Amino acid sequence: MSSINYPYPDPKNDAEREANSRAADHYQRQEEEAADFLDWAEGLPPAAPELLLEQVRLDLATAGFHVAPPQPLTDEEQGGVAAYIEDGPVVVDWLPHARLDRAALATADNDGTDDEDAVRYYAVRNAMDTALAAILTGFRYTIRRPPHSRLGHIVA
Questions:
Q1: Are residues 65 and 1 in the same domain?
Q2: Is residue 73 located within the same domain as residue 135?
Q3: Are 82 and 68 in contact (CB under 8 A)?
Q4: Are 20 and 53 within one domain?
Q5: What pTM value is reported for the model?
Q6: Which one of 8, 25, 109, 135 is CB 3.0 to 4.6 Å from 16, fit for a cystine?
Q7: Confidence (pLDDT) at 12
């Protein structure tokens, strides 16, 4: 019971002990209500992909990300998190700014695997992919990799 935030961590009298007892009872009721709610929610059908997509976009914006618009980005637009529906599930991926993308593509044409732009591109992509996985998991989404890609996440 040490995870409960008791009003009196070190009770000095009966009144403080009683307050701690009420706090423990309140905490126990909250735990039971949450368990009942989760049991009830398991019987519901899964959310429509469009609703899930909007919730994912809202949660990503809440986490502080710039969520890219659903339509393809133009060269003038910046990158950010892209969340979209692809063949049913919601997919979340990171899009670097067009400048970084172009620089990495230019070095790929020259097989510039040691090129600074390519190293920077892959460092950013991998870091953001890892961060997205942690954030989506923190928002209690179940994620998995898309079958066609090494990066990005399918959200359930």
A1: no
A2: yes
A3: yes
A4: no
A5: 0.61
A6: 8
A7: 92
CA distance 30 to 89: 33
- Spatial distance between the Cα atoms of 88 and 49, rounded to a whole number of angstroms: 7
Below-50 pLDDT ranges, the chain: 1-2
The number of helices, as runs of H, and strands, as runs of E, in the chain is: 4, 4
Q: How many residues does this entry show for the chain? A: 156
Q: Burial-class residue 139 by CB neighbours within 10 Å (0-12, 13-18, 19+).
A: middle
| Residue carrying the six token digits 């429509």 | 48
Strands 80-85 and 90-95, how do they pair?
Answer: antiparallel
Q: Give the pLDDT confidence score for residue 109 in this predicted structure.
A: 56
Using the structure block, give the residue that is written with the tokens 């899964």: 46
Q: Which two tokens stand for residue 116?
A: 């600074």
Two tokens at 155?
């959200």
